[in-house]
Amino acid sequence: MERPEHELIRQSWRAVSRSPLEHGTVLFARLFDLEPGLLPLFQYNCRQFSSPEDCLSSPEFLDHIRKVMLVIDAAVTNVEDLSSLEEYLASLGRKHRAVGVKLSSFSTVGESLLYMLEKCLGPAFTPATRAAWSQLYGAVVEAMSRGWGGE
Questions:
Q1: N or C, fewer C-beta in 10 Å, the chain?
Q2: Per-residue pLDDT, 48
Q3: Domains in the chain, start-ordered, CATH in brackets?
């Protein structure tokens, strides 16, 4: 990616990263709207959540939201050299595969990420910013997909 995109990503992330839990919750609420079938994958102590709201308010899930936002933060920090995160992202992919997540669900996660950014940034979420984030997210998923055996 070229420099201007990096700057767009950094600027837009600054606004989001001030309250990661709040924005991460918007991302996952949207994800469960778009793909309700993902809800049963989140079980803690063998307890299934009765609703997305139930899930989104549980301490264990809030911890997962924090972790997801930290991964995005790492990608933003290393936007100029994502290859430095390759091993980490591949192992993250393996962890997700192990709990039954399908690689295809990550395209829905991408849509939910863009939705959250748009909600957070409003008019500042320009087509150029959207394109930059799509590119970054695509690169992250590509690295994670190695955890599913894709080289």
A1: C
A2: 87
A3: 4-148 (1.10.490.10)
pLDDT tens digits, one per residue of 42-77:
988 778 899 999 999 999 999 999 999 999 999 999
Q: What are phi and psi of 100, to 5 degrees?
A: 95, 10
Tell me, yes or no, if the pTM score tops 0.90: yes
End-to-end Cα spacing for the chain: 21
DSSP annotation string for the chain: --HHHHHHHHHHHHHHHTSHHHHHHHHHHHHHHH-GGGGGG-EETTEEPSSHHHHHTSHHHHHHHHHHHHHHHHHHHTTT-GGGGHHHHHHHHHHHHHTT--TTHHHHHHHHHHHHHHHHHGGGS-HHHHHHHHHHHHHHHHHHGGGGT--
Q: How far apart are CA 35 and CA 29, in angstroms?
A: 10
Backbone angles phi, psi at 13, to 5 degrees: -70, -30
What's the confidence (pLDDT) of residue 2? Answer: 54
pLDDT in tens, 15-42: 999 999 999 999 999 999 999 999 999 9
- C-alpha 35/C-alpha 20 separation (Å) is 22
